[in-house]
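Thread: "does anyone have the structure for this chain?"

Original post by V.I.:
We have the sequence but no experimental structure in hand. Need at least a predicted one for the grant figures.
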Amino acid sequence: MSRSADFPGNRLSLQRLVPLMLLLWGLACPAGSRAAQADPSCPAEALEKLFAAGDYDAVVAGAEKSPCADNLALAARALLARGAFLPPGDERSRLLDRAIIFAERALMQDPENLAALLQAAAAYGFRAVTSRSISDVRQAWKLLARARALAPDDPYVLAAIGTWHARTRLGAGGLIAPLLFGATKSAARRFFTRALEQAPDAASIVIGYGLLLVAFGGEDMRTGLALLRRARTLA
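Reply from O.Q.:
Generated one for you, tokens below.
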């Protein structure tokens, strides 16, 4: 379906939750994770420092001057960071569209670049929330499936897949999400549990899972709050 396709769900809760999820687990590619690949021919230290300083425009400009796959993926991450907390509107849509373009450019150079796969999945997933696009939901899943094939035990890949299941289930509802997308709460729990088995002290994953469980409500809320309390003890 086209980007304008709509599906039911709690738009307000997702609009608040997804930007938090993107930022808390590092906009899909936390620094220092196994998902962050190093290319000796593409030194990214300078751009990473600019990103850490919040100079996102400079990151994008630097990637334009040196458009290797890792730099392009980092530029996509910077554009997501800029758009994450903007209100819905033309500016946020423009930034998400540009993030997708940069991530796709990275994948054209290196189809197995894990950082680019996760950045692209995050961008399509975020755009799906704002545009209500079924095709974007499915494209995010395809990218995550590729990432999982490359790194089946990477905790951030597992957390990203868990987030996709949770976000899609929250957005499309308990009836449509499983039928149309195969997204379920139980799968979200399963992938996050596996992520925490691989990285039990990864604060970003603990917080992300806690937030999603709170959003699920019911008995999940109690577990989610316990995870958020535990996250306060982590570095």
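V.I.: this helps a lot. Confidence is low (pLDDT under 50) at residues 1-15, 23-28, 30-36.
O.Q.: and The chain has one domain: 11-231.
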